[in-house]
Request: fold
Amino acid sequence: MKLIIIAGPPSAGKTAVTRQIIRHFLGKKKCAFLKIDVVRAFEDEELKEEFHIPARKIYSGDLCPDHTGVMVLKDAIAWAEGLGTDIFIVESAGLCLRCSPYVTQSLGIVVLSAVSGMNSPLKMGPMISLADVAVITKTDLVSQSEKEVFREKTKEVAPAIDIIETNAIQGTGLRFLMRAIDQQAEIADPASILLRGIPPLGVCTICVGKREIGWQNHFGVVRKLDGADDIFRGD
Reply:
């Protein structure tokens, strides 16, 4: 089974790209889909109804959606494999710019919107730098010069990344993405799959519910306003 992980900021067009992938392989490969979101999601219902594929979702709630994805991925792979899936697509909520959902033995796709601002790729860190392919959507809504600048900013973050420009609703230019999926190796050993990136330095006290402001009220890795270096408070 091939594992495809799709990430990107909200409203970039992740589901539109997912829909094009399923449509392309429909009748040739058996696809399954998992949506990871925070509060509400409907993509699984829409794709199940449109393409009659196995689809499900999970809400991260108080957890980071990327962390939730890592926690449930082993079970999700077993679920998809049990259905005889050929291509398993996992779509992340895409809300965490410090982390990334990509793992080894997968094809990592980041979906970016060309209308999000020419400097937006510089703000996304591992979401772009750890991906294999960047699909830039809504390119029909910007000028050629804006497209070129956006491409260069993306390359500045990840020089080796493959870039595909598209109008994801129509699917133009996505034949290169389908080729990358065709060439992607299947999962060799689910037990040895690892998160690609380095997780944050630690779980902060804010993550576990401490609400007071000021670094003096928190423990673990903290940061002051007048210093760029992290410090550690606590045992």
